[in-house]
Design goal:
The complex is a heterodimer of chains A (314) and B (503). With 314 residues, chain A is mainly alpha-helical. Chain A contains 14 helices and no strands. In chain A, 78% of the residues lie in helices and 0% in strands. Chain B contains 16 helices and 21 strands. The chains are: A mainly alpha (314), B alpha+beta (503).
Chain lengths: 314, 503
């Protein structure tokens, strides 16, 4: 297992380098002049020239990349051109927020999606199956921003149960933190639950037809044991893949949800950074997201091996 | 028994003080997150709203846009208009205890002029030297007369920051700003909140009724209003015109409005690269036809629910600088068609670029259908704002729907856009007569002379139309009814002097 992990981490290094080159290149292709975006209504040519010089924007692109990657290797991702805060500080501020939102959304999604998927596979063709499918389809089709605003209007404005938006850290006030995150997690989780439900259902349908499930039933095991211990465990392999990929996705920022509920996470940061041409911030975030994605994939592979002993052999 | 009674009383007292503390906290919802909080470096409108609580200026403006004393209590101009002497308020300290005096003013102006990251350079360009006459008198010597200087000093260029803090922090001053305003900086989490608390040493502390002010950037207008209605905010700025009716209908809310000093219009490429070689760039008759084909009232009703102010000049009709001899012309399709014919066209094609936000899109579509009736076929090109701006500067455009946030002095709304070679003149419009009038207005401290020059320039500009003005945004605020004393200003700022929460 340790050898496997080590090998995977070594393979990940060139991937991360490729991501960094890609991100840097994409940024340079973006239209619009970062210096003009920075200067705003001030167009003093001397100021513009100074800014260009200061941020190495006159140098050839490969050289600019080298400046950046050299800093990045030493843990310096540069500073935000917009607020002058170090990018690493910003990431340190925003990442826990996004992780909390992503984790809560996944919990919501997992506890709705997986049982619904199991049930609808087990009761295939009945009203339960039909109902789960309709709910799943609605979950997938209802746009986050619409559901979010409707929830705010109903729960916060009309009923006054939860705060309409904002963020409180769980270290400061755990209850308040849960209160502010509940609606966003529900909104984000509802769409994901639908995806998880569909995946669980199809995996379960496959597994329930297999020989060992028939054998388990023939042994006289209870339906519950057959379903949970034998069928679900195997069916979970693709579900875990999807879940970890979704989690990696969420770390990149649940942009719309964060925007509506004004959660100061990665998504809001990256959108603002793109619009203000805050290159260093965009690069830092995409690099971090890339690394997170690779880490999530690694976690998925490790989890397979725990769930499915056959995979430990190869 | 007595012990539990004491406990109870203590608990009651605690909850009471907690309520007091809450009552003295103010939460304001902003439309976007400010940039760096250094008055010399920052450029966003939203940042200025925060500064109104954080940093006092040498002079301020009244709601009627007159210059009034703030850190400077009085001032005089020399006869040749090349020296401005200011008397400073005594007994003022910065929030770190540094005394405010003529040396501090000298430091601040020199920082604005020479600090490499300063975005105030062009605003204080006319100041050649700053001399400390005595601890509370400062004299600005100008390289040339500059009537706009006082107005510049009523905004970021006139904000005084603590020299001690600025010298210590350098370029990172904005991470921990220290000024002399009624509130001092406590904490900022980007895109989340900016927290200020009352500065006990403020010279005008009697007028301040909050212990803490929190600014929360909430970009979505619907969500911002929902937060206010749910009681999570006390006030919101830049409410969407479409939300005005529902805010007014809410018995718990009050609203306020002020016509802004900015404008929105159509900037035409007159001579910036070959892209200007098209009917609208070459013929003022075509530009006049386009202007006549638009019904500015209908635009206001359709796109802004009637909440904004239609306009045809760089100053709103409510401004003292507005030229009343040229009122907004009513829409006249027949006259527009006749003008096109006179220019030698039956139909013309016009490419118009605009920012990719829903409001701009809607505005351009309304104009498109109006102009079409007069034979002007507008092709809408949507771009992301920074790209649009770049193309406009580079001359890669025919017309742009774009605006200007506005300046207190009329010069700031006109000079840079119409004078030959000026920094914001992206259409490369050039007319020696206009240049002459603009320069006369710029150096005269006599308001009558200035008004005359602007009116004369206006007469030419409204005929040649390098910019076709459309409307002036109206700042809309909504706030809890228990908030008293709020005065709307045409600069869109929130001044907290005399604002209080009634219980």
């Amino acid at each position: 297992m340790i050898e496997f992990l080590f090998r995977r981490i070594v393979i990940a290094i060139p991937t991360i380098l490729l991501i960094s080159i890609f991100v840097f290149g994409m940024q340079k292709i973006l239209p619009g002049d970062p210096v003009l975006a920075m200067a705003g209504e001030e167009r003093d040519p001397a100021t513009l020239a100074f800014l260009r010089e200061k941020y190495h924007l006159n140098d050839p692109v490969p050289q600019q990349y080298l400046y950046w990657i050299e800093g990045a290797v030493h843990g310096d991702l540069g500073i935000s051109l917009r607020t002058r805060e170090p990018v690493l500080t910003l990431i340190g501020q925003k990442l826990p927020v996004t992780i909390q939102l992503a984790a809560m959304a996944l919990i919501v999604a997992f506890f709705i999606g997986v049982p619904a998927g199991v049930l609808s596979a087990y009761r295939k063709g009945t009203w339960i199956d039909w109902l789960s499918n309709v709910v799943a389809l609605s979950g997938l089709s209802i746009p986050n921003f619409w559901l979010g605003i409707m929830l705010i209007l109903l729960v916060s404005v009309r009923l006054g149960w939860l705060p309409a938006s904002g963020y409180v850290s769980p270290w400061v006030d755990p209850v308040k933190s849960l209160e502010t995150m509940l609606m966003p997690a529900l909104v984000l989780g509802s769409g994901l639950a639908a995806a998880l439900m569909r995946h669980t259902r199809s995996a379960m349908l496959g597994v329930l037809k297999s020989d060992y499930v028939r054998t388990a039933r023939a042994k006289g095991l209870s339906e519950r044991t057959v379903l949970v211990k034998h069928a679900l465990r195997n069916a979970l392999v693709p579900v875990v893949t999807v879940t970890t990929l979704i989690f990696g996705d969420l770390l990149g920022g649940a942009v719309l949800t964060e925007q509506i509920f004004t959660i100061p996470g990665f998504g809001k940061l990256v959108v603002d950074a793109v619009f203000t041409r805050d290159y260093a911030v965009v690069q830092g975030i995409v690099l971090c997201t890339g690394i997170a994605f690779i880490a999530m994939n690694l976690l998925a592979d490790a989890l397979y091996r725990i769930l499915n002993p056959r995979m430990r052999m190869s | 028994m007595t012990r539990s009674a004491t406990k109870l009383a203590l608990a009651a007292l605690l909850s009471l003080t907690a309520q007091w503390a809450h009552a003295a906290d103010l939460r304001i919802g902003l439309q976007d997150d400010p940039d760096v909080l250094d008055p010399d470096q920052s450029r966003t409108f939203t940042g200025r709203i925060v500064y109104a609580s954080l940093c006092d200026k040498l002079v301020d403006i009244s709601p009627e846009l007159k210059i009034i004393p703030m850190l400077a209590t009085s001032w005089t101009w020399s006869d040749d208009g090349k020296a401005l002497t200011m008397k400073l308020r005594e007994g003022v300290t910065f929030q770190d205890g540094t005394p405010f005096n003529a040396d501090a003013v000298k430091y601040n102006i020199e920082r604005s002029k020479t600090f490499e990251l300063s975005k105030r350079k062009s605003e204080v360009k006319s100041i050649a030297t700053v001399d400390v006459v005595d601890p509370y008198t400062v004299k600005f010597t100008l390289s040339a007369p500059d009537a706009t200087l006082l107005a510049q000093l009523s905004d970021r260029a006139g904000m005084m920051i603590s020299p001690t803090a600025a010298q210590k922090e350098g370029a990172d001053f904005g991470l921990n700003p220290v000024c002399s305003g009624p509130f001092k900086f406590v904490q900022r989490v980007q895109q989340d909140k900016i927290v200020l608390e009352k500065y006990a040493g403020y010279y005008d502390a009697d007028k301040i009724h909050f212990d803490k002010v929190t600014f929360l950037p909430i970009p979505d207008t619907t969500v911002r209003l929902a937060n206010l209605r749910a009681g999570d905010l006390d006030m919101i700025e830049r409410m969407a015109p479409t939300d005005l009716a529902s805010a007014k209908a809410d018995p718990k809310l009050a609203t306020a409005a002020a016509t802004s000093i900015g404008y929105q219009g159509i900037t035409v490429n007159i001579a910036n690269t070959d892209a200007a070689k098209n009917p609208i760039g070459q013929s003022k008759l075509v530009r006049q036809a386009l202007s006549l084909s638009l019904d500015r009232d209908v635009i206001n009703q359709v796109v802004f629910n009637g909440a904004f102010a239609p306009g045809n000049q760089p100053f709103p009709p409510t401004s003292p600088w507005y030229d009343k001899d040229f009122p907004i012309q009513p829409r006249d399709v027949a006259a527009a068609k006749a003008l096109l014919k006179q220019a030698g066209f039956d139909k013309v094609d016009v490419e118009m670029q605009g920012a990719n936000d829903p409001q701009t899109q809607q505005l351009m579509q309304v104009m498109q259908s109006m102009a079409a009736e007069a034979g002007i076929n507008i092709k809408i090109v949507t771009k992301e704002f920074a790209t649009m701006l770049k193309d406009q500067t580079a001359g890669a455009y025919q017309t742009t729907q774009v605006g200007w946030s506005g300046r207190v002095d009329p010069d700031g709304n006109l000079y840079g856009f119409v004078v030959t070679g000026a920094g914001l003149n992206d259409g490369h419009y050039s007319n020696p007569e206009v240049d002459k009038l603009m320069n006369t207005a710029r150096v005269s401290t006599d308001e009558a002379v200035r008004k005359q020059s602007y009116d004369a320039a206006q007469k030419i500009l409204l005929d040649e139309l390098p910019i076709i003005y459309l409307y002036h945004p109206v700042w809309l605020w909504a706030y809890s009814k228990s908030l008293t004393g709020f005065v709307p200003y045409p600069d869109g700022m929130i001044r907290l002097q005399n604002v209080a929460l009634a219980n």
